[in-house]
Amino acid sequence: MEKLIIQGGTCLQGEITASGSKNAALPILAATLLCEGPTTITNLPHLQDVITSIELLGSLGVEVGVHQQHKIEVDARRLDSLTAPYDLVRKMRASILVLGPMLSRWGEANVSFPGGCAIGSRPVDLHLQGLEAMGATIVIEDGYIRATCSGRLVGCSISMSTVSVGATENLMMAAALAEGTTVLENAAREPEILDLANCLNAWGARVTGAGTQTMAIEGVASMTGGDYRVMPDRIEIGTYLAAAAATRGRVRVAGAAPWALGAVLAKLRETGARIDTGDSWVELDMLGRRPRAVSLTTAPYPAFPTDMQAQLTAVNAIAEGVGIVTETVFENRLMQVQELRRMGADISIDGNTARVQGVVRLQGAQVMASDLRASASLVIAGMAAEGETCVDEIYHIDRGYERLEEKLHHLGAKIKRIPG
Ligand code: UD1
Questions:
Q1: Ligand 1: which of 53, 113, 129, 162 to mutate, judged by most atoms within 8 Å of the beta carbon?
Q2: Cα 168 to averaged position of ligand 1 atoms, centre (Å)
Q3: Per-residue pLDDT tens over the stretch 155-183
């Protein structure tokens, strides 16, 4: 297993360019299954989860042409298989996103039932209930979700009891080719939902209200396909800004979408950082000072994102004062804490709340990545710490950060990848 070796104590300085959003790219790749004509996706991040999605499309018989690193053409005119197999779903839970589009276009879909994962149990009940409300018959058999419908799915009104990004996306895509209009209430409002809606509309769907709690999807008989450029990755950008704050540095991210970073920028400002934004860039300058600890509670957009919680916990670990971090979206997402403690962080946990008493110095240590964002927090802590940090199990990082070492290197970090 590869590892990252970080020599801490460097103040990050400079400019990098944001990659395309992982969480927008994955549903957009699934949405290609809705289209009768070819689709071209650009600004696609080169990440393990994207490679897994492309493998999944390939296993269904979809023609995928990778033209340049960040651009692919997908032709889903015909499929050879309607089954998303265990081996691919096991690697990436977001494989569930093919369920809605495959069912809607071909009247059948079989998807291996996704298990829980390190950060929580992550059920898919809302995805299944919504599809059933649209007329699908769903059985769970041999570890697979087997969904069928006779004729087209039928639009209806669906009110989701919990705000779920994945369920909202799956149901938007299923509704795109349904008969009549589907109204989704209590829909997720994440920027990636808006990006998916823009993409669906560019490819022939009729989605309105994306980015609000109530979305209407007027079903169309067919979707043509076309081109789409994936939005910048707000979590990647937030991670580099948090790294700048923890190392008292100054980092500008180009190719960004600052509008999608509201709650994250507000918290980073509270640390004492100066933040400037333009239409497509954002810059954080810690002015050489130690950050102040901040308190935060994660919740669905537009509140503070759970995907940035671990990174801000790392900033708090080295900050001045006490930060109270409460995680409300996933039940088991404070796993970075025990590894941060190995680096000398002073953090206590009570249920889903971490009390972080900032320390003046973190010490490099051997730590293990447990999930994608927890891994990022260990890299941040390693750069802010004294001495050497070795982060193990970094395949998690490769699922969600494109060229992480190269970008950090460019900002002056001393980081290298070594074989395990
Ligand atoms: C997506 C993101 C992930 C992010 C999360 C929350 C992708 C590929 N992943 O994950 O990075 O951390 O949103 O912003 O976009 N739930 C149910 N029943 C369901 C579905 C979800 O109870 O059928 C619960 C989950 O257990 C969780 C909460 O809803 O507690 C939110 O999960 P959800 O928004 O669905 O997360 P994902 O779409 O899996």
A1: 162
A2: 10
A3: 999 999 999 999 999 999 999 999 999 99
Crossing angle, helix 48-60 and helix 22-31, to 10 degrees?
A: 10
> What's the pLDDT tens digit per position in 24-80?
999 999 999 999 999 999 999 999 999 999 999 999 999 999 988 899 999 999 999
Cβ neighbors of 85 (< 8 A, separation 6 or more) are 59, 112
Which residues does 123 contact at the CB level (< 8 Å), separation at least 6? none
The helix, strand and coil proportions of the chain, stated in percent and rounded to the nearest 5, come to: 35, 30, 35
What pLDDT is recorded for position 232? Answer: 98
Pocket of ligand 1 (CB under 6 A): 23, 26, 94, 120, 122-127, 162, 164-167, 305-307, 329-330
Compute the residue count for the chain: 420
**Rounded to an integer, what distance in angstroms lies between the CA atom of residue 41 and that of residue 240?**
25
How many Å separate Cα 404 from the centre of its chain? 16
Summarize pLDDT for 303-313 with one digit per residue, the tens.
Answer: 999 999 999 99
Query: Residue 37 in contact with residue 225, Cβ under 8 Å?
Result: yes
> Cα(7)–Cα(383) distance, rounded to whole angstroms?
7
3-state secondary structure 14-64: EEEECCECHHHHHHHHHHHHHECCCEEEECCCCCHHHHHHHHHHHHHCCEE
Please provide the DSSP assignment of 108-169 as one string: EEEEEPP--BTTB----HHHHHHHHHTT-EEEEETTEEEEE-SSS-B--EEE-SS--HHHHH
For residues 279 and 274, give the distance between their C-alpha atoms in angstroms, rounded to a whole number.
17
> Is the overall model pTM greater than 0.90, yes or no?
yes
User: Rounded to an integer, what distance in angstroms lies between the CA atom of residue 24 and that of residue 385?
Assistant: 33
Q: What is the mean pLDDT of residues 148-159?
A: 97
Which residues are the active-site residues? 117
pLDDT of residue 120: 72
Q: Whose CA is nearest to atom 29 of ligand 1?
A: 164
Which pLDDT score is estimated for 234? 98
**What is the Cα–Cα distance from 154 to 177, expressed in whole angstroms?**
9
Given phi > 0 = left and psi -120 to 50 = alpha, else beta, which region is 250?
beta
User: For residue 390, what pLDDT band results from cuts at 50, 70 and 90?
Assistant: very high
- Percent of the chain with pLDDT strictly greater than 70: 99
Question: Tell me, what amino acid is at 207?
Answer: V
Ligand 1 centroid–CA 355 distance in Å is 25
Q: Which helix (H) or strand (E) holds 414?
A: strand 414-418
